[in-house]
Design brief:
Length: about 270
Amino acid sequence: MTILIIEDEELTARKLQRLLTDVEPTPTVVGMTVSVEESVAWLQTHPQPDLIFMDIELADGQSFDIFNQIAVKSPVIFTTAYDEYAIKAFKVNSIDYLLKPVKEDDLRQALVKLQTLRQVLAGHERGMETGGLENSLSSLLDYLRNAAPATALKNTVQSPATFRDRFMIKQGQRLFSIGLDEVAYFFTRNKMSFLKTRDNQEWLLDYTIDELSHMVDPRRFFRLNRQVIVELRAVDKVHLYFNGKLKINLQPVFDEEVIVSREKAGDFKLWLGE
């Protein structure tokens, strides 16, 4: 099975590749892309893979934009930290929708679903006059677009996991834990994730920002953008910004400008007012 992974966090992409090796006997990852632009260029210059794993939020937009620029002929498994895109995902080539961090059992079930769909359609087309593989693939995609949403959505969106109340920190040969009440925010820097405490200490974490977003209670923490997840009490000031965006001051102070997009501004205001 040839596989394209579209994911802008290198650590997440590598973890998925390792997980595929454990689940699928002979996976061949033929490419890894990090943006809409790079993914479109890859698909224009390479044979269509058997399967695409596709993150939704990419560095230069949402992966749905790929479908507006090129005909994607491969089945897609979406992997994302957000559950609000499930309906939209099943309007394209999606056979499954997995929330990060992707679990081995969920990945295995998604691959079994793909195999089952192929077998069903192969049996269906053996009794019909067909044009071979191209028609078979076309039928598969039609099935995914028209039949999958009603059943797959119910079965694939994962239930919220138990939220973490502390994180283990490694400092040299020393291990200790930091309670969630001590956390002001999580952030990324140079593709690494950190925890910032209320007393302005930074600690390296072995999780991606996507994984962290599923480990904390959304009533207390909000993902402001691709770089920062903030705890409610760490929001110092909120400023109106151009084009409907918001500019956030954090406490302790974050060393970069923190901007909330226009698309997320409404959700942030609702969260802030709960």
